[in-house]
Amino acid sequence: MENLYQEIPLRRRSVLQKLFRQQPDENAVIEINNLLATRPVSEIRKTDVIAIAAKYKLDLLKTYSQNLEEFYAVYLHNCLKNKHLDAAEIEELDHLRMVLMLSEEKAAEIYDQMVEPIYRNAFTEAVADGELTEEETRSLENLQMRLKLSKDQVSKISENVRGALVRKKFYDAIDDERLSPEEEKELELISKNLGVQLQIDKASREKMERYKLYWAIENGELPVVETGINLQRNESCYFTTPVNWLEMRTITKRINYGGPTARIRIMKGVYYRMGSISTHRVTSEEWRHIDNGHLYLTNKRIIFMGTKKNTNIRLNRILAFTPYSNGIELEKDAGRNPFFGFAGNIELFSMILSRVLNH
Q: Does residue 105 have a pLDDT over 90?
């Protein structure tokens, strides 16, 4: 236990303390520290600490309880470096507890605060690979006995660590906003091995299902949607939604007239205006509503069934598309570029459209 506590010089008295023959209260704690720094714990007596308290006229447990607890915690921490307390260390700790006038309950509380993180770290390391082997279980049981942890303490630590690990594995798996069947199976296997039911909130559960769908759209078979319209042979529909069809149109706002002119009087009340009149159109590009109806995305085309007319755009005519928060703009090889406005699942439509365009 050498150099566990460092000897500290006492604080100087202030002018007022000298005048009233007082000592700095904090010197009481410093004197106890210096006792621990200069003498073996077994040689320190409770009367030594009581004498220091009387010297400074202090109730140490009331005024400096945290300091006394810290002295005990420092000694305990040093004893636990090997994750084990032998009989001599237990005896010394109990002696120190009495010297520092700490209750058995307070000492037990400090002990739990010290040893639980040790067991927690060991348990976390053991299950880091997603399973707990028989050898690791025996090692943890041995550590539990050496640290004198109760079954309730171990059970609580085990439950917290295993649950936290499964949740971490889950959030790591969906970090790329995709969840493959292999990743899902791995999560299920880890949960089974550790005996933990994945506990996630509704929002996270919805994310998981969405990210599974994202992966399937990019890598697996596209989910087919049943429709009430007649499709071509070998044509499958992958997405449908109500939409508003808009197109960019040139709108003339006004016509300005101008040009140089001159006014010449011919006779009373009659004038001749020389020059010419020119026109200047003021126009702007604006989105104009064309129709509303239902859009169907298939492996061959985009079909629009509107209230005014029906039409379709073959996939090989689409050069590019731009998704917005309220819809999709298509860029075609000829003609006007339509904007299909709809709410929700725009990212799904974009992913499916990208998939079918690339295949």
A: yes
Burial of 87 from C-beta contacts in 10 A (0-12 / 13-18 / 19+): exposed
Sequence spans of domains, the chain = 15-102, 124-219, 237-251+286-358
Query: What pLDDT was estimated at residue 344?
Result: 81
- Cβ-in-10-Å burial (0-12, 13-18, 19+) of 317 comes to middle
DSSP 316: G
The topology under which CATH files domain 237-251+286-358 is PH-domain like (2.30.29)
Q: What is the DSSP string of 124-162?
A: HHHTTTS---HHHHHHHHHHHHHHT--HHHHHHHHHHHH
Q: Are 130 and 165 in contact (CB under 8 A)?
A: yes
Q: Which of 20-34, 56-70, 141-155, 315-329 has the lowest mean pLDDT?
A: 20-34
User: DSSP 3-state assignment of 341?
Assistant: strand
Q: Would you state the torsion angle of the CA atoms of residues 17, 19, 22, 23, taken in this order, to the nearest 10 degrees?
A: 50
Q: How would residue 166 be classed by pLDDT, with cut points 50, 70 and 90?
A: very high
**Number of Cβ within a 10 Å radius of residue 301:** 20
pTM for this structure?
A: 0.67
* 241 CB-side CA count, 13 A: 20
